[in-house]
Amino acid sequence: MKFSDFIDVRDGTHESPKATDKGKKLITTKNLSTNQIDFSNAKNISVNDFNHINERSNVEKYDILLSMIGTVGNVYQEKNDNPEYAIKNLALLKFHGDELLSNWMNYYLQSEDGQNKIKQKLNGSTQQFISLKELRNLEIELPTKKEMETKSRPLNLIDGLIQKNNQLNDNLMFQNILLSNSFFRFLSILFSFSFLLISLNIDSAELSKYLAFSFEGILTM
User: Fold this and answer.
1) Cα–Cα distance between 89 and 65 in angstroms, integer?
2) Between vectors from CA 200 to CA 196 and to CA 202, what angle results, nearest 5°?
3) What does the angle CA 157 – CA 66 – CA 127 come to, to the nearest 5 degrees?
4) Which residues are CB-neighbours of 189 under 8 A, at least 6 positions away?
5) Which of 43, 70, 135, 176 has its CA 20 to 30 A from that of 210?
6) 25: number of Cβ within 10 Å
7) What are the distances in angstroms from CA 49 to CA 19, 20, 27, 30, 44?
8) Mean pLDDT of residues grouped by 10 in the chain (221 residues)?
């Protein structure tokens, strides 16, 4: 069965919208890797250009992006409800809310068989690419919905666990940074006050009480 028989296959703009200081992000091949979009080096475009591109190539939840030029075959499944970016020179596989089909295709395209299917259709000697026509005509054997669910459910579960683990690691890293900054800031204040108390000839017993109280404060921060 050809892709075009069961997927709405489109691509992003081929134009080069002018970069702006603020606006919406434009995602190209260089921003796309498998399972990830790097927004940090994506250029901004005006809202008017963004709306113009998305009249035909708007990315929605469960749509899949596929790199077509240069590094061909990177796959990204959009899982956010309202993506806020436009695309250029990327294949856009639209599933119109069909989560099951999107999940199965996401894993199939990343599989060895899926990647080989794509590589067989590559063109170009200097810079390889797969044309939109070739992508639409790419043929695969489509399983039943029950088979799709059986194959994609455990992989989807693993992906969910990985995503939660990554979020947990990010949160822990952020907390460690805050704790580290708070700790050193507190030590700086602590030693400043200690020096002040010593210079004022505060009784050593009173100073010890102050230091003990301050250290207890660190443990509860």
Assistant:
1) 10
2) 100
3) 140
4) none
5) 176
6) 17
7) 10, 11, 13, 20, 10
8) 95 95 96 94 96 96 96 95 96 97 95 94 88 95 94 83 67 57 54 54 52 47 46
